[in-house]
Amino acid sequence: MNVLKPHLQTTIVTLLEAGTSQREIARVTGIDRKTIRAYQQRWASERANSPGVATGSPPQTPPPRPPAITTTTVSACEPYREFIAAQLRLRRNFTSIYQDLVDQFDFTGAYNSVKRFAGKLQEHDPEQFDRLEFAPGEEAQVDYGEGAPTRVPGTQRYRRPRLFVMTLRYSRRSFRRVVWKSSQEAWAQLHEQAWRYFGGTTHYVVLDNLKEGVLAPDLYEPELNPVYAMVLRHYGVVADPARVRDPNRKGTVEHAIGHTQATALKGKRFESLEEQNAFLEHWETRWAAPRIHGSTRRQVEAMYQEERPHLKALPVSGVQYFKEVQRTVCDDTCIRIDHSSYAARPARIGSRVLVRLFDHYLEIRELGTQALVRTHARVDRPGTVVLPDEERLFNPSRETRALLR
Question: 10 Å Cβ neighbour count for 67?
Answer without folding.
Answer: 6
